[in-house]
Amino acid sequence: MSLLALSDVTIRYGRLTAVRNVALTLAEGEVLFITGPNGAGKSSLLRAIAGVTPPAGGRIDFADHDITGRAPEDIARLGLSMVPEGRDVFASLTIEENLMVGAGMHVKESNWRARVTNALEEVYETFPILRDRRHAQAGLLSGGQQQMLVIGRALMTNPRLVAIDEPSLGLAPNITDQVYERLIALQGQRKLTLLIVEQSSTRAMMVGGRMILMRGGEVLIDGDARAMGQSEAMQAAYFGYGEH
Amino acid sequence: MSAILQILFDALSLGSLYALGALGIALIFGVMRLVNFAHGDVIAFSIFALLWPSVDVVARVGAGNLPWFLLIPFVLAVGAGLSVLAELTVFRRFRNASPATMMIASFALGFVIRYFLLMLYSSRPKSISLLPALSQPVEILGARIPLLQVITILATVAILFGLTSFLRRTRFGLEMRAAAENFTMARMLGVRANRVIMGAFALSGALAAAIGLILGSQTGTADIQMGANVMLMAFIATVIGGLGSLPGAVIAGFLLGAASVVMQVTLPIDARPFRDAFVYGAVIAILIVRPQGLLSGRGTKERV
Amino acid sequence: MAKRTSIAGRTIATPLILSALLLAFALLAVMVGSKPFNQTIIDIFLRVILVVGLYVFVGNSGVISFGHIGFTCLGAYAAAWLTMPPMMKQTLLPGLPDWLIALQLPYWAGAILAALWAALWAGIFGKVLMRLSGIAASIATFAMLAMINTIYSNWEDVTGATSSVVGIPILRSIWPFLIAAILAVFIAWGHAISRTGLALRAARDEPTAASASGIDLPRERLIAFIVSGAIMGMGGALFAHSIGVVTPDTFYLGLTFITLSMLVVGGMGSLSGAVLGVLILSSLIQALRWLEAGVSIGTSTFAIPNGVQEIALGIVMVAILAFRSAGIMGNRELGWPKARPVAPATTGQQQPELNKGVSK
Prior knowledge:
The structure holds 3 protein chains of 3 kinds.
Chain A: E1 2-13, E2 16-27, E3 31-35, H1 42-49, E4 57-62, E5 65-66, H2 72-77, E6 80-83, H3 95-100, H4 109-126, H5 128-132, H6 143-156, E7 161-165, H7 173-190, E8 193-198, H8 202-207, E9 210-215, E10 218-224, H9 225-230, H10 232-239
Parallel strand pairs in A: 3-8, 3-9, 6-7, 7-8
Antiparallel strand pairs in A: 1-2, 1-4, 4-5, 9-10
Chain B: H1 2-32, H2 39-48, H3 68-89, H4 99-121, E1 126-127, E2 137-140, E3 143-146, H5 147-169, H6 171-181, H7 183-188, H8 193-219, E4 221-222, H9 226-240, H10 246-266, H11 275-289
Antiparallel strand pairs in B: 1-4, 2-3
Helix pairs in contact in B: 1-5, 1-6, 1-8, 1-9, 1-10, 2-3, 2-4, 2-8, 2-9, 3-8, 5-6, 6-8, 9-10, 10-11
Chain C: H1 2-11, H2 13-32, H3 35-61, H4 68-83, H5 86-92, H6 98-102, H7 107-129, H8 134-154, H9 156-159, H10 175-193, H11 195-205, H12 207-212, H13 217-243, H14 253-266, H15 271-293, E1 295-297, E2 300-302, H16 308-323
Antiparallel strand pairs in C: 1-2
Helix pairs in contact in C: 2-3, 2-10, 3-10, 3-13, 3-14, 3-15, 4-7, 4-8, 4-13, 7-13, 10-11, 10-13, 11-13, 14-15, 15-16
């Protein structure tokens, strides 16, 4: 049984069609990279899954619920945690407050504190730097630290699936390495399902897992990331960039 | 010395009103980008609620007869209730509308509230003796300060303190602050939009009612226009404080109050009637220098 | 240049249709022939002038202005200064310079000068304010309005402070108001299809692209501000002549909001919307007034209580906006049937500048 399933999803902005009839499924515990050039529709797809821009057509199922057109908070409450592009930290809140926003959303007021404290401990364990600066304003963090913060924040909601948009955007390569290292470790520990959008496919090939290549709003290739690295279809798709 | 003290109290009590008003506007703007022009009419409505059901010129029946410890919660509840009702019946339909459309809708709603009051009570101000004991002066360091001014300031400080700790220490407050900064992100973390917006409206309405209580006790009248002036200054304070920034709104509110009072005393006699023109000129100057507001709190990025 | 005439050719339908509509209202007034109804139609034409003036800036730039009624105030008082009998000025406004007290112009000359006077101040204020954008600009225009109001409410010798300035010659004829309204429509149309109007709307719809293509936004906005200021000034002068009395509070928040509402309800980005917004809301107001006065149905008279008029108006406004959040016309213009109805306004999605960052 798949955790996330998209069928025939189309997304439009006014007259512009960003995503066209995309279908894909994601099993529990799987790691899926969605790659492709700028304007391929990757982020649009993620935003549709998270409920931010409802799709114009098609159907999205998550954890045995039809979530097409549902509100973002309802989808989040089903266990889908979205980390949008550009590391949207709440800049005026402290790090700890950022982490607490989505924590224990199903827990009653009275048990909330205890629950949050536990979850915080786990996140601090993974990202010790966040503990050191827990009372600092999130806006003051460096890019890499902010990336860790938003990943940590997503984990605080105790999600089944974490969807991350361009975790490497604007980060130095060695920082990106660190972020991925933690992410993959977490995935193993928590049996998380990961959906990661990256422009470049190199990272997917390094990390491994399944990979989808999108272009012009459609899925071109779907397969094993490492195997794809060698395939001709892959290279053809990439060489096709210059045309438009 | 006592003159300076008098000016200080004048500035603080006027600033208190502006700050409370600005806070009410900023709370709602923060979560839904609505500049709520109906705020002034919520202020007026709350105070008229004391008169109901009497429509006489000198009226003090109904809720106005309650002892203070019941009267105050009653008025606050009226303000909060009206505000929440406005969200449920009107603003909920405008979630995805442009700010211009929302603004005009809020104005139209204010119009409805105002004329509803007018229909019931006519436009003549009603005299109310609300908490008459407060009009006596007290002596502070040789200056005779109206007790009401002192209470206004203390009440404002208490409200600000309470609101701050609510926003800082409770889960709901945390959700509200997060939503004010980035509503979509907050929702993606499971923060429920309707709850947060409704909470913001309730708080904002209660703040409006608090202003109504203060104005009603200060002037001894209930006047349909009474909310308008405070709202305009509050509105300006919200913007120069950095739209959506709650501390900014409060600081700018006090600043505007201080500017008004200080200009009142320092301007040459001939220029005094034009005091407000100077205040507005200063507002334009501040906006030119810092269009994102004094305390935008969100770095250099202009939010609107 | 050839392109310009073709734009004019393609879009001329809009001002022509709107003028015909206004003419129809004027003819209706002539046919009915009652004095109060005549006055009602004059009021409608005045609002058309003001809302069209507002459209020139707000519609094209996407920046909400709360300040334009300030220019109406300037225009109205200028008309008073220029057209009142010298004797009355001597007693009511002794602070005016002697030459101005001695001067008494016909109403049309007064209106032209009033428009120029308002335009001059629009230029001065605009020079400073047009550097701002978004909600900061809106608030600054608001501060400007409040500033003008404070000055006019307190300058005893020159404006009579808050007391009414009486003795302004009253125009009873409907035609000057009709002509001025049509003139306003054509000025707005001419501005909208001019290079500066097109550039301004381009910047409204696509801010990034526009700044990349070298549009000098503050300058284009300033031009629109001045043109609209002039129309508002003219409207103010005629307003003064329609009632013969001016006070500063006539030109303050009430008028600001009613004109803005008409624009937004009609469709902020559309000249047709500006005119239709006035016609529709004004008709509604009138109908409600009649109901308030009482309507005989058979033997019984039916009347709605006082105040219901405004309440109903507010509810209708909310309802229209709830169902059509871009206003009745949205961004479209009236055109000849079958012709593509894309006149002055561009086809892009209307995105007032305030909207930026809202849906991120």
